[in-house]
Amino acid sequence: MQYLIDLLSQPWAWYIAGPIIGCLVPLMLFIDNKPFGISKSFEHFCAMTQPKHITVSYFQYNWKKHDWAIIFVLGITLGGFIAGQWLTAPDAIQLSNAADSMFKQWGISRGMEMYPKELFSVSIVNLIILFVGGVLTGFGTRYASGCTSGHAITGLATLQIKSLYSVIGIFGGALLAAHLITPLLFEINK
């Protein structure tokens, strides 16, 4: 059992993880004849948990047809909890010298944590950043008719041009945020 835990707590090589993810596309299309994506799964979860006295017309559909998506969301949540509790590597993440100096320039101390304490500590600024980021992500997901996993995995695999545009926009926005917005957020958070 310890061997399995040790194996799972190491990053998998791209040539192992990539084909596993790639096999999900035909599997999901076969199961529900729907594209694979987490935003649709969360949409079904929201429709399921909508209180009876509050009715949002967007969520008025038979979510029971998509019960596999609810299990998918619960599986992701459980998998994330298991990975965080028992499958994390005990050593600090190895970063390049350039990345370490960038973090020092931003005022981030690196220790054994998987994430910087300065960014994930509870503060008013961090809560505002997380809220605004969540709203923008939700808006972008609805505007693009899907999330990164839906467009980048299923959409590109099924040769959809709108997914190509979405992936270019998603990764272009991520590069913009990483190089221009993130340093400003760390300046505000000092």
Walk me through what this model shows.
The chain has 190 residues and is mostly helical. The protein folds into two domains: 1-90, no CATH class; 122-190, no CATH class. 68% of the residues lie in helices and 0% in strands. The protein contains nine helices and no strands. It has helices at 2-8, 14-32, 38-49, 67-86, 97-106, 117-120, 124-143, 148-157, 161-188. α3 crosses α4. It is globular. 12% of the residues are buried. The mean pLDDT is 79.
Key features of this structure:
single chain; 190 residues; mainly alpha; 2 domains; 68% helix
Radius of gyration (CA) equals 19 Å
Mean pLDDT: 79
Could you estimate the helical fraction of the residues in percent?
Answer: 55-70%
Going by helix content, strand content and strand pairing, the class is mainly alpha
Q: How many domains comprise the coordinates?
A: 2
Order of helices and strands: HHHHHHHHH
Summarize the structure.
By secondary structure, this protein is mainly α.
Secondary structure elements and their pairing?
Elements: H1 2-8, H2 14-32, H3 38-49, H4 67-86, H5 97-106, H6 117-120, H7 124-143, H8 148-157, H9 161-188
